[in-house]
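Entry for the shared binder. Reason: the reviewer on the internal report wants the predicted structure included alongside the sequence.
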Amino acid sequence: MTEVRIAGAAITAFGKIPGRTLRSLAEEAVRDALADAALSPQDVQMVFFGNAAEGLISGQEMVRGQSALRHTGLLGRPVVNVENACASATTAFRLACMAVESGAADVALAVGAEKLTHADKARPLAAIGTAIDLSEPPTLGGRTTADQVPAGPKSYFMDVYAAMAMEYSRESGATEADFADVAVKNGRHGALNPKAQYRNGVTREEVLASRVISAPLRLLMCSPVGDGAAAIVVCSEAFTRRHGGGEVRVRACELRSGTDRVTGESPGVTLAAQAAYEGAGLGPEDVHVAEVHDGAAPAELIVYEQLGLCGRGEGPKLLASGDTALGGRIPVNTGGGLLSRGHPIGATGCAQLVELVDQLRGRSGDRQVPGARVALAENAGGYLDNDSAAIGVTLLSV
C-alpha cells in the first residue's frame, strides 16, 4: 500500500465562542491546513468531515460537511460525513488515510468541527449523553443516585467517568489528589498553548475545592463544553516527492469498537494500541510524546496503563514521577489535553493530531518536546457497559 504523509495541519482557537458558527470554524481550519500544505482546494480529491452533535444542537443533519464547507472551494469533490462520537475526527482521519493508501486519492482532507455552546446550556449536555446504547444503558458499576451529588445540569458522561474512577481507585489506590494532579499538569501545558480554551492553570488545592459533579469527580477534573475545529491534509509519498513537504509519516492508525468484555479481557484501547504498535513496528518505549483522551482526569491515568506506558496500577506513580509532564521522559497532553485545550467533541481527534504534527515538526514553541520523533494519539468516544464505544490509536513519526 501507498505510504501516507501529513502535508498540512491546523487548528482554530478552542473555547466558548458565541459569535462563531460551525461553518466559520470549519472554514478557518481548512484554509489554514491547506495553506500549511501549500495546496489549494483544487488539489484535494476527497474530504472526510467529522462532527458528532450538530444535528442535535442546530438541527443540521445528513449534509453537515457539505453545508459547513460550502464556501471553501471544496464542493464537487466527494464529501463523506463521519459521526463516531468523540472519535469522529479520528475516524475521518483514518478514512482519509485509507483513501490515500488504496490509491483512490493522492490528497485527502480530514476535518473535525463542533459547535457545542448554545443559549440552552442543557442542550449540548443532553446531546453528549446520547453517545451510549439507549436501549441498554451502562450500569455504571452498580452506582446509584445516592452515590452522586446533585450539581445541576451535567453531562451523563461524568457519571460514566466517575464510575470508572471509583473502580480504578480500588484497583490502583489512586486518590482524588492524583486525579487533581492530572488537571494541574494539563493546565500547566495548556497555559503554554495559545489555542487552548483555558490558559490560567490550576493548583491541586483549587481542583479539590471545586464543586463535586459526580463523586469523586470535581468540576476542574472534567473536560469543558466548547467550540472549535481542526483539519489535517494527508497525501501519498509519491505526491510529496513531486510537491515537497509531508515530513510526518502516518505509521499506523487503528480503529476499534468496544466490546461487552468480561473480567480479564483487554479493553478496546489496549487492542487498538497493540494493533497500532504491531503495524508500525514500534512499541510504547519508542514514543516521545502523546495525546490521550482525558475526558475526565482519571481517564488519563487509566489510559497510561492501557497503552502500555506503565504497568497495571502504576498510572499514579508514572504521573507523580514527572515523566508525563513537559521535560519528562514521555510528555502527555502537551497541548493541554481535553481538560485545558477543550473538548469540542467532533474536533478533538484532529486537534490531537495537529498538536503532534507540530511537535514532530518542531513548531510548538514553549511546549516543544526536544527531539520528538515518534508520537502517539489515543482518542475514544461513546460508552457501552464497560468499554468505550469507538476508539482510535494513531502513531506518527518523522
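Summary line for the report: The two ends are 19 Å apart (CA to CA).
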